[in-house]
Amino acid sequence: MASSVNPTVRRRRLGQELRKLRELKGMTAEEVAERLLVSQSKISRLENGRRSISQRDVRDLCGVYGVEDHRIVDSLMQMAKESRQQGWWHAFGDIPYSVYIGLETDAASLRVFEASLVPGLLQTPNYASAVTEGSWPEATTADIERRVQVRMRRQERITDPDNPLRLWAVIDESALRRIVGNPAIMCEQMHQLVQFSLEPHITVQVLPYDVGAHPGMYGKFSILEFTDPQDASTVYLEGVTSDLYLEKPNDVQTYSVMYEHLRMQALNAEQSRQFIRSVADDWARE
What we know:
Residues 18-73 form the HTH cro/C1-type domain. This is Helix-turn-helix domain-containing protein. It is a single chain. This protein is an alpha/beta fold. 53% of the residues lie in helices and 11% in strands. It contains 13 helices and six strands. The protein has helices spanning 7-25, 29-36, 40-47, 55-65, 70-83, 98-106, 125-135, 141-154, 156-159, 173-177, 183-197, 249-265, 269-284, and strands at residues 109-114, 166-172, 202-207, 221-225, 234-237, 244-246. The radius of gyration is 21 Å and the shape is elongated. It starts with 6 loop residues before the first helix and ends with a helix.
């Protein structure tokens, strides 16, 4: 059964605390790795929250850092225990972007730029199914159904009446023009985009072709922000076999500035709705 505790967030916070303890001790990750006879990469993954942390890992690290306050050790051990619990997404098996889902589940706001596809949180089931089938040629019917189920479950964050995710999406015109599935699926998807864009916590902007060159030409990216100040804003770059998470302030600032330029170059919210409606009409005539 999935726990209400978000294991991804627990790992991040625990990793941050362990990094602080190491820095207070004046040790490098390499020095810690040598003391524990493990690789330096393991220490780095523990600190950035990308690797599951066992209570034994916490005990060993606290020993190296000379932590004598049992309350601190007990608190870190409890965080380690919670970090190994399962989030709702684990019920769907091996999801390659599970770390991202954990962050998205706990985020307060999300800014996303998409160059080729409608953002996952705004996709219809039919569009999501066609995207998965087209981008994953070896997928079985069961694989596709599972991915679509996960995507629809993720959408609960933006439809949650009590705590909806604040979503801002800038979408390149090519994502609206590229046929995914068939014209009927595209028409349905355009109408859903318009409906979502009417929600007060969702903003959708279209970046038309006639803008020309723009900062998003290097590819799609997402910026996640959190309510708790302990949780650093994170830039997410999705890859085919691995993903990249950027948390350094300079990196986040760079992508935030890029996003502001994209927002300024894109059509405003109302112009975007009108544009999407016209694209829907085009697909209806196909």
